[in-house]
Amino acid sequence: MPLYSLDPEWEDVVPLPQDDGVQPLAQIAYTEEYTEAMSYLRAVMAKDEMSERVLKVTEDVIEMNPAHYTVWLYRAKTLFALGKDLVEEKNFLNDMALRHQKNYQIWHHRQLIMDRIDDSTGETEFTVTMFEKDCKNYHVWSYRQWLVRRFDLWDKGEIEYIDTLLEQDVRNNSAWNHRFFVVFGREETVPKDIVDREIRVCEDAIFIAPQNLSPWSYVRGVLKKANLPLSTFEKTASFYAPLDNPDKIRSSHALDILADIYAEKGEQKERALIALDFLAKKYDPIRANYWNYRAGLIKASS
Amino acid sequence: MPLAPPLFTTLPFLHDAHVTPSSRDQDATASSCVRFLSYPEDPFPVLDRAAHIAFLESGLNGDKTGKLPEYMVALDASRPWIIYWCLCGLASLGIDVRRRYRSRVVASIRPLQNSTGGFGGGNGQLSHMTATYSAILALVIVSGPPPDGTDNSEDDDEDPLDIINRLTLLRYLHSVKMDTGAFRVALSGEADVRGVYCALTIITLLRLPTTNGLLAGTREYLGRCQTYEGGFGAMPGGNEAHGGYAFCALAALCMLGEPREVLSDTLDLKTLVSWLSARQYAPEGGLSGRTNKLVDGCYSTWVGGCWALVEAALNGPQKEVPLGPAGELRPENKGVVGSLWSREGLARYILTCCQAMRGGLRDKPGKGPDFYHTCYVLLGLSGTQHYFYYVTHPAAAPSSVTSADSFSTAPEAEDLPLTSAFLWRVSPSIPSVVKGVFEPVVEDLPAWPDDVADVGVEGDRLRAQHPLFNVPFECVDVVQAWVGEKVGF
Ligand SMILES: [Zn+2]
């Protein structure tokens, strides 16, 4: 059913058809509604018109195809030109984001809007609603990091929220990653008690699930940031991977870090090679080539 | 056919008792993959070439009505992508897409170009870096002199690449370049590593001048995208390490210089290799994009593709010597590290778990095929069958560097056209750590002879794709020849 051609509000607009060329490849069978809305949108875009009716047609197209970046960008431009109430736009975005979880464009658009609104009230709460559906959504995490930086939310409940997420799923690497951002993302030295706290957090997480890579990578990151040697973690790693009692080995990641610790200490290269050999043959054989490569580096250096 | 080794048919030796949503998903995926991997009738199924060709051709030609179904409107802003995915997949399967589709590719891409520079995802859509990237790659795949017997002779005098307006494109690139070193994906769009990778691909292939600070800060920007885990996020400052962004960042860096030099100067290579290696899981054999996420066929390209770049950085530039059966040049392979990943694991995952029954390839069992996954799963499979290396010897250096200076207004060292990408070579023989010994991708497999360059209609062999651009390897030479004849714009 034609919606635009019969609408007096659009009387003055001559729709602009799509030129796909001769015998085009990958042509899509559009619905009549999509074809019509797009042809009116192209027409107003060609005139660089920014008006209420432009907002209406962009909303229409976005509803049919939320991945249409041109429409989002043109909508943002129009909203700003008309000085529209951006809080209302935010409500529209909430609804769209919840219905289209994987969409890219919504989050960039939201960032443009929020930057103008200049008030982050309710924003972290909304990301939480999104995380309840998918706690590893890349775009939402990226947006949350922008929020923290833009609105100085570093100490406004980020660590507490991450603790809750890690309690629900200690393997949620996006939460670990966000933690690293919150703790080390500011351009300042992190005090010793915070570093100690972070190491403890890793130890606790490893205790629950030793074969979870996230805290092992995280603790390496912490030690590097704090300029501490890997051997700071030797005792913990040895507990989960006692080389002299192979039946008690419970974590390949413990073997991995031990191999690095022993390789760093010149006189214990033999033990590093034992750890790598365990990894290649028994505990992580899909990565045998990599473990053998590491062993080769150690042999070459002695 | 021997049964698959236990590595691919049994759950991992170490397994935590503590259950969370992540481990539940992981266990379910591993178990479902094991069912395919240990299928006794056919533990190593052949590539269903004909079915995949038919699937990809349906992407270009549509169904009986000549169009793609209505629900694909979600890809309406990605039409050059559909064309690129299908062409690239078909080419790796051995189809001569240049003969079959050349004039229609030109006709389809032409209306996407904007007078203000660059290409949009459809006619009348704003220019976008990823649309420009895929549109140009689609043209690259069909470029070169007109093939004999092309049915439509109208467009045949001009090279498909001639439709690109390089001058407006260069202006567009400057308009999306940021002071941070990044490139936005569109005017007022987001800036991330994808933007940089697309920009560098375009600049390199079309040999655009990099004067006036086009690449100022770009290398440093890419370096800042490396995270504490070793992989790369979409942008600096906290994004999680992710396979897709890792490929974009590494391939972009390799366009800026010799891999060993540029990667070791910009990154922490040791952590990168560790993160990359941790992306491969057993028993699945496939690759994941992030820590504690599931394997997915498309990472066969994004993560699998990183290995060639990282290994080239560890091996350093290789000398070529006439070692092939008929005296062809082959890498000397001095002190190479060999494959640091399991080519066999990935090949098994792709052939057993990613082939959809009616053609097309997919993310994992239980998912449907699509053009995106079909393209990148095939590219990943091709990657398991080829060894990519980087050469430096005078004969390999592009002869046209000097002629390119004619449109470089300030020929300072950093402003020279980017040429490193053209020093990559490919061999069907995969060297092992032991000098002079080659490793088969999969032991005892007649369909996978280890020194055959030709892709026939039988067997699983695929054509090699360029490790940085993801187009058929030889297309890059064709573009080189085309751009070498350009004087000015
Ligand atoms: Zn995928």
UniProtKB/TrEMBL annotation, chain A:
Q: Quote the PROSITE patterns the UniProt record gives.
A: PFTA
GO MF annotations, alphabetized? galactose-6-sulfurylase activity
Which Gene3D superfamilies does the annotation name? Protein prenylyltransferase
Source organism (scientific name): Discina gigas
Q: Which cofactor does it need?
A: Mg(2+)
The record's section on Pfam families has: PPTA
Keywords from UniProt, A to Z, are: Magnesium, Prenyltransferase, Repeat, Transferase
Q: Which domain of life is it from?
A: Eukaryota
Q: What is this protein called?
A: Protein farnesyltransferase/geranylgeranyltransferase type-1 subunit alpha
What is the enzyme's main class?
Answer: transferase
**Per the UniProt record, which EC number(s) apply here?**
2.5.1.58, 2.5.1.59
The record's section on InterPro entries has: Prenyl_trans_a
Family per record:
Belongs to the protein prenyltransferase subunit alpha family.
UniProtKB/TrEMBL annotation, chain B:
Kindly state which keywords UniProt assigns to this record, in alphabetical order.
Metal-binding, Prenyltransferase, Repeat, Transferase, Zinc
Statement: the UniProt record of this protein carries the keyword Metal-binding: yes
Cofactor notes: Binds 1 zinc ion per subunit.
Q: Which reaction does it catalyse?
A: L-cysteinyl-[protein] + (2E,6E)-farnesyl diphosphate = S-(2E,6E)-farnesyl-L-cysteinyl-[protein] + diphosphate
The GO terms describing molecular function are:
protein farnesyltransferase activity
A Pfam family that the UniProt record links to this protein? Prenyltrans
InterPro entries linked to this entry: FTB, PGGT1B-like, Prenyltrans, Terpenoid_cyclase/PrenylTrfase
Q: Which SUPFAM superfamilies match?
A: Terpenoid cyclases/Protein prenyltransferases
Residues annotated as domain Prenyltransferase alpha-alpha toroid: 47-409
Task: Tell me which EC number(s) this protein carries.
Answer: 2.5.1.58
- Cofactor(s) the protein needs: Zn(2+)
Q: Where does the record place a coiled coil?
A: none
Question: What interactions and quaternary structure are annotated?
Answer: Heterodimer of an alpha and a beta subunit.
Q: Which family does it belong to?
A: Belongs to the protein prenyltransferase subunit beta family.
Functional description taken from the UniProt entry = Catalyzes the transfer of a farnesyl moiety from farnesyl diphosphate to a cysteine at the fourth position from the C-terminus of several proteins. The beta subunit is responsible for peptide-binding.
Query: What's the protein name?
Result: Protein farnesyltransferase subunit beta
Q: Which organism is it from?
A: Discina gigas
Provide the taxonomic classification: Eukaryota, Fungi, Dikarya, Ascomycota, Pezizomycotina
- Encoding gene per record: RAM1
